[in-house]
Amino acid sequence: MKLAKPIKNLLCCLGIASVAFTACKKNDNTSVTPFTEGYYTGTVISSSVLDGNKTQTVLPANINFVGGNYTENNLTLNQLAYIDFIPFNGTYELQNENTTLVLTYAKVPLYSSLAPGFLTGSYAISYKADSLILTQNLSDGTSSYQFRLKKFSR
Fold first, then answer.
1. Please, are residues 108 and 36 in contact by the beta-carbon 8 Å criterion?
2. Rounded CA gap, 36 and 94, in Å?
3. SS3 of residue 18 by DSSP
4. pTM for the complete prediction?
5. What's the rounded mean pLDDT across residues 75-98?
């Protein structure tokens, strides 16, 4: 009977350890919050490789996603050799079980040639902590755009 008490204590310790390890299990990214509408702020990074040299351009990005439409309203045209702010508009659609965001720029006749390329195309959606990451690798294989955004809350 002296052996029964140590076995009982051992089983009790194993039970406690099992509960502790289960409670401390890290969450995987399958349960992250899906993309939601709203106002996002951050940056857009344009990357390209030409003759082995990598170049990056980082611009501010403030995008409002509402009702299937988006407005990007922080790109200054002086960054494109002009002086005023112009909001660029378009539509968006979630695809592939909310893992892809497709942006379509709504061309405005006066500014259609000024719209930056990153406001159209298919973006893979991912998350890092509280940031929404939208990544587009262009078909040339050497260029990409990446939005790094945080949802603005008041």
1. no
2. 10
3. helix
4. 0.68
5. 69
Query: For residue 85, what are the β-bridge partners?
Result: 76
pLDDT in tens, 94-149: 999 989 999 998 866 565 555 667 788 899 999 988 899 999 998 888 899 999 99
Residue 109 one-letter amino acid: P
CA distances from residue 87 to 43, 71, 76 in whole angstroms, order as listed: 16, 6, 9
What is the Cβ-side half-sphere exposure of residue 92, based on CA atoms within 13 angstroms?
28
The tokens of 111 are what? 């500014």
As a whole number of angstroms, the distance between CA 143 and CA 67 comes to: 30
User: Could you give the CA distance from residue 106 to residue 68 in angstroms, rounded to a whole number?
Assistant: 12
> Residue 84 has which token pair?
């005023």
- The answer to whether the beta carbons of residues 61 and 43 sit under 8 Å apart is yes
Q: What is the CATH number of domain 32-151?
A: 2.40.128.280
